[in-house]
Amino acid sequence: MKTYKYLFLLIGISIFGCSDLEEEPVGLLAPDGFFNTVDDIETAANGAYGHMTHEDFWGRKMSLTLMLRGDMVDIGDPTTSTRRIEHNEFNVPTDNGMISGYWLRVYQMIAAANQAIAGADDVNVADEIKNPMTARAYFARAFAYFHLVRQFGDIPYIDAPITDLEASSSISKTSAADVYANIIADLQFAKTWLPDTQIARSIPAKSAAHSYLALVYLTIGDYQNAYTEAKGVIDNESVYNLGLEADFQSLFDASQIDNSVEPIFTLDFIGASNGDDGRDYQAALTGLRDDEQYGLGGGWSVGVPSLEVYNTWDGRDYRKAVSLDTTGVFDGVLQPYQVFRESGAGRGVNRPHIAKYTRAIGETATGNGRGSNANYMMIRYAEVLLIAAEAHNEISGGSAEAMGYVNRVRARARNSNGVTSGLFPEDIAGLSQDALRDVILEERKWELAFEFKRWYDIARRQLGSDVFSASGLEGDKPNFDPSQDYLFPLPAQELARNPNLLPQNPGY
């Protein structure tokens, strides 16, 4: 049900890039007396969520950056923007346009959340009435900082509206450890006050805060707390109205996703846009150029899986068929991927393309799919099961409980439209801790393929030297440097404006 639409806050959202004094600040302070009711808190909090679907953030820049830095998606169109190719090749300069494009947007998201949190203090009602709404702002702030800290490490941490421009021009970085502590505190507040369920999964419920706590703890290697939080979600499956979608394809069908119990927190694209505000570019960026089969006018073949992704993915795994397109239609003729380029000038590379964002994008999709009403799952229940599996294996190596969570996810992977393959997956009983760890990470790779998770897994597990070697899915990536590339460079223009943000991340 797309009954909930985000409002963009026109007051209280500061145009803030740490020390960007050359820009005219807009709405540094909400007008006196603006926050009087819970509805005012909601308006401010919704401003944070409105930024999430912008082209600068999940519409294109951050999402595509994460996809290209992983080991499953390569550049299909060598003429695409250099700023994209730089991430794919680990040759990222400090003025990379992808990073500078979304850095400011994320801090606008944070500024809106801060305004809601600060403004709630002025609303004179009981905590039981206002805190469930304020908790949405705490969740949004944690969500934004969680992306930033994983990408940049030490970053400016701002937890209140900016009231002093001079002071803001000399802000320093906060250590990654302290940023994580603040993220956890925000999520704990959200978990305490958010309701068990909401009218739409694009509005965070208690399950979203609960699940993100599990993921945050997993990311920082606190496996006991990661397991505790993930197990708490699993134990409350019925309370939170969660479960695994019976058919994996339904998770990527815009006509079905709103009624699914598997998504935990989604970004809601509504098939309309104001310029680049609210536009969904992934279908365009990952779709097959000139393909006629989905009525989108074809995609751009920018982010395309390497051929080894297709070759090494077990064909008995139903997720492979859902996730990849191996055929395209050109001039009314169905063609296999081996001849995509030969089928006509300008068409995609001869590799299967990503199907998750094109096959069932919704009736209102227009302009290569950019006008889409398909939701993006930021976290879903299958991932929580795999978080529990990974964390419990680290606590109790080779545990049967961890294997049970993996097998629950795998059971669906061998079920294609109600037909179960008895051959897949293989038995994992009795595996050692190390062997089971490898299985779980592989399971995350295939279950969450092309869902913008893989780079974060590579970084947190320090897998780069292996997955970007000659034996990796994309072959040797000689520019990858483990002493540098697990972090992105801080935007050069921010360091120039505010030397207190120095030093730059190592290697840049």
TrEMBL record:
Domain SusD-like N-terminal, first and last residues per copy: 92-218
Keywords of the record: Cell outer membrane, Membrane, Signal
Location of the protein in the cell: Cell outer membrane
PROSITE patterns tied to this protein: PROKAR_LIPOPROTEIN
Broad class of where this protein is predominantly found: membrane
GO CC annotation: cell outer membrane
Domain RagB/SusD residue range list: 352-508
TM annotation in the entry: none
Superkingdom per UniProt: Bacteria
Family statement: Belongs to the SusD family.
Name used for this protein in its record: RagB/SusD family nutrient uptake outer membrane protein
Species whose genome carries this gene: Winogradskyella flava
